[in-house]
Design goal:
Layout lengths: L7 E4 L3 H12 L4 E4 L11 E5 L2 E4 L10 H6 L9 E3 L4 E4 L5 E4 L5 H6 L3 H23 L12 H16 L2 H12 L2 H8 L3 H9 L14 H7 L4 E2 L2 E2 L3 E3 L4 H13 L3 E3 L4 E6 L4 E6 L4 E3 L2 E4 L3 H8 L7 H8 L8 E7 L20 E4 L3 H14 L1 E10 L14 E10 L9 H19 L7 E7 L1 H8 L35 E3 L13 H14 L8
Parallel strand pairs: 1-2, 1-15, 2-11, 6-17, 15-21
Antiparallel strand pairs: 3-4, 5-10, 6-7, 8-9, 12-13, 13-14, 16-19, 16-20, 17-18, 18-19
Helix pairs in contact: 1-10, 1-16, 4-6, 6-9
């Protein structure tokens, strides 16, 4: 029987679970969250990884967090503060040159160092990208058209069609190219110099186990420019206190709305009866019942580990086994006694380039080779690394005079060849990455106090990220929009009545956006015939 204390149970206290819970509570439901770790936040947490050094453990920068969610959940009132990067990106180059993007010197002037033609092309490229990003951005808070979804899906398709009609024919062609082409071929058609293509193309491999020339990587690039920080579109920023500041603010709001949050409560299984989810069983053996169960976990994890195989149609199970999970991500947090002293821009005093996203990957072809290496050898011998140094704008993260840095590294094959295991190879790749960064900033290795390394295996064990996939499933054309996670189930519902998907495995996918949690809550309330929340 349903527990009279709760209407809805949520599996996973990551940011989407917290968002979903808060909106459900605002709609009148009594909600309980079960989180396996000692703290809520999922991959968006701030933790101490060495004595005196704290950092955003996994997710490490903010842009995709939707402004409506920031407003509705009163995140600023609950303590969240986000600062825009004073400069977007810095690309040090092995030959001693560098490219700065989004800084006070002006991007066009920087690009002109390498190509006058590219500098002239850049404004038109940004206008094209922004027009397409606006189309996607405007539909984020809507449920995608879903096959067999009835009148709601029909209305969603009509709204999408009306937006499409408002685009010029040129913009429609731009949208089609971005959605179907590789980022590499797209950028090669716009620019001739490697540095600007590398900076822009990096967005196409973030969390994507593929080459910038892989089909569909154009959409991955687009996915990373649809966000905003403090009202400025397409930018990225630092959450003061780390990414955990976001989820702690969410948890405070959820608690204020009456949501009950249980930590150290891993769920063993979803309880079902006659085609319906009726509750959950914890690993402790405790059972809890409710009319609604919302899963903030990877769909593959949900259906292969938490839901009994015979509870869903066999054809659905077969397809879910083929659901692609792999982001090729290797995360490191490092404690430093000094800021990196880059050969191309010397100095250890805090400067704009230290406060930006520092990309170490000089060309698209270099990124292509990094992917090929990972496929053949297990990990890239010349990896792709983005470094962020949040302590340059947030002195709460490290002792005075010291710093913390996030290293987001590609590519690490979740399945190593020749029977090797990441349990044995994790530190090997970590030391390889340290040497690689040191080749750009020769003081890096000597200033290293401590580090934490997380291979795909560690990311899966620690955060439930199947295959180390930070997006809860690859953002390929076969797994986005009306096909996320599968055609016929793009509306946050599942083959089991009462079971919903509220995590990044649902539309619009990965990143710390909160949108899947928001949209799933709306669909749950519709089904429960509760009054949805009112927007101000």
């Amino acid at each position: 029987m349903p527990d009279p204390k709760f209407d809805a149970l949520i599996i996973g206290g990551g940011h989407n679970g917290l968002v979903c819970a808060s909106y459900l509570a605002a709609g009148g439901l009594k909600v309980r969250i079960f989180e396996s770790r000692p703290i809520v936040g999922g991959a968006a947490v701030t933790e101490e990884f060495a004595p005196g050094f704290r950092n955003s453990t996994a997710a490490y920068t903010v842009s995709l967090l939707h402004p409506a969610i920031i407003r509705d959940l009163r995140l600023h009132e609950n303590g969240l503060r986000i600062l825009s990067r004073p400069m977007d990106n810095f690309l040090p180059l092995p030959d001693g040159n560098s490219l700065s993007v989004g800084g006070p010197a002006g991007t066009a002037a920087e690009v002109a160092k390498f190509s006058e033609r590219d500098a002239k092309s850049l404004p038109a490229f940004y206008r094209m990208l922004e027009a397409v990003a606006d189309l996607v951005r405007d539909s984020l808070l809507e449920t995608p058209p879903n096959q067999g979804g009835g009148i709601d899906s029909l209305m969603s398709a009509i709204r999408m069609g009306n937006r499409w009609r408002k685009l010029s024919r040129e913009q429609q062609r731009d949208f089609h190219e971005l959605m179907t082409r590789s980022a590499g071929y797209l950028l090669d058609g716009w620019f001739e110099s490697d540095p600007i293509k590398a900076v822009l193309g990096f967005d196409a491999v973030v969390g994507n186990f593929g080459s910038p020339y892989s089909p569909g990587s154009g959409y991955v690039l687009l996915h990373h420019v649809i966000g905003e920080v403090n009202g400025k579109k397409g930018t990225w920023g630092h959450a003061i206190g780390g990414m955990g500041a976001i989820t702690q603010a969410m948890a405070r709001e959820a608690a204020s709305r009456g949501v009950d949050i249980r930590t150290e409560a891993p769920v063993r299984s979803v309880l079902t009866d006659n085609g319906r989810a009726i509750g959950v069983e914890l690993e402790s053996g405790e059972q809890y019942f409710a009319a609604v169960v919302a899963a903030n976990v990877n769909p593959k994890l949900l259906y292969e580990k938490l839901v009994a195989a015979d509870a869903v149609p066999a054809e659905f199970s077969r397809r879910m086994k083929r659901y692609r999970c792999a982001s090729g991500t290797f995360r490191m947090n490092v404690a430093l006694s000094a800021l990196p002293d880059f050969s191309c821009l010397p100095g250890t005093e805090p400067a704009l380039h230290h406060q930006s996203g520092i990309i170490m990957a000089p060309s698209l072809r270099y990124m292509d080779k990094a992917y090929a290496d990972a496929m053949e050898l297990g990990f890239s011998r010349q990896p792709i690394v983005e470094m962020l140094i949040p302590s340059t704008v947030d002195d709460t993260l490290a002792p005075p005079g010291a710093h913390v840095a996030s290293l987001f590294c590609q590519h690490a094959n979740p399945e190593l060849p020749d029977g090797r295991s990441w349990a044995d190879e994790e530190d090997v790749f970590a030391r390889h990455i340290i040497d690689f960064v040191d080749s750009y900033a020769p003081n890096f290795k000597n200033s290293l106090i401590a580090y934490e390394a997380m291979s795909p295996l560690t990311l899966e064990k620690r955060f439930g990220l199947t295959g180390g996939d930070i997006f809860h499933g690859a953002l390929g054309l076969d797994q986005i929009f009306s096909a996320r996670p599968m055609v016929g189930y793009a509306d946050y519902r599942t083959p089991l009545k009462g079971l919903y998907l509220c995590g990044a495995g649902a539309h619009p996918g990965g990143g710390v956006s909160g949108v899947p949690g928001h949209n799933a809550a709306r669909e749950i309330l519709r089904d429960r015939k509760f009054r949805p929340w009112k927007r101000n």
